[in-house]
Amino acid sequence: MEECAQCHFSVSTVRTLLGADWVRLERLTDNANCLSLKEHRALEIVLDDFERRFPQCFFAIYLGTLPASLTAADLGFWLINHGAFHTQQIAKRNDFGTALVIDCQRHVAALTLGYALESHIHEAELRHILSQMNSFLNRRRYGQALENAVGLFGRRLAQSATRTLPDVPPGPGTGDLGGMGLQPLRAAHRHQRTGTKA
Question: Which residues have a Cβ under 8 Å from the Cβ of 157 and sit 6 or more positions away?
Fold first, then answer.
């Protein structure tokens, strides 16, 4: 996915800021330490439940303090294109993923969908989910904001799903973003996997 079908934002623009390499990150990445240990564990359970309910899909969350030149929407779009997310079942493509990015300094959130989900969840529904997070974000109640968002998204997805999405393997890559809490994929690991035969 090189360009957002809804806003026509091009990933090449963000690549000038973040690069074109892949990065590895957990499906719940709290780079700004906004969540307590209790909230983190509760959210892991929520994300587990989401993946059990929608085994073809995953929901990833990133919390951080973003530089002035980067918006939450920018990072979300880049992560859907360049993030290798550690999920319950690694054999999932980002086409079936959702990235929720929160800029903890600006109290701004953005939801980005993988290409295969765009026909299932409309832009107005995404705006509604984000609007329901605002009061929690303004009070720095990040755990509640995130649980609410995942729950609302799951309900919307269940309502709109009319057929089963196929399971497809991911495509790994390499990359490094330094202090943003994103771990690089090792090139050697990528070559080993691509060269393995069943």
Answer: 54, 57, 117, 120, 121
Q: Report if residue 196 sits inside a domain.
A: no
Name the nearest CA neighbour of 54 among 89, 18, 7: 89
Strand order in the sheet with 83-86: 83-86, 23-26, 183-184
> What is the rounded average pLDDT of the residues 105-125?
93
Measured CA to CA, the distance from residue 20 to residue 29 in angstroms comes to: 20
Asked whether residue 119 is assigned to any structural domain, the reply reads yes
Percentage, residues of the chain above pLDDT 90: 55
Q: Mean pLDDT over residues 86-113, rounded?
A: 88
Range of the domain at 82: 11-160+177-186
Q: Return the CATH number at 69.
A: 3.10.310.50
> What pLDDT, on a 0 to 100 scale, did the predictor assign at position 168?
53
3-state secondary structure of 31: coil
Tally of domains within the chain? 1
pLDDT attached to residue 8: 52
- Distant-in-sequence, close-in-space partners of 22: CB < 8 Å, separation ≥ 6: 82, 83, 84, 172, 173, 174, 175, 185
Angle between helices 11-18 and 72-82 (to 10 degrees): 90
pTM assigned to the model: 0.76
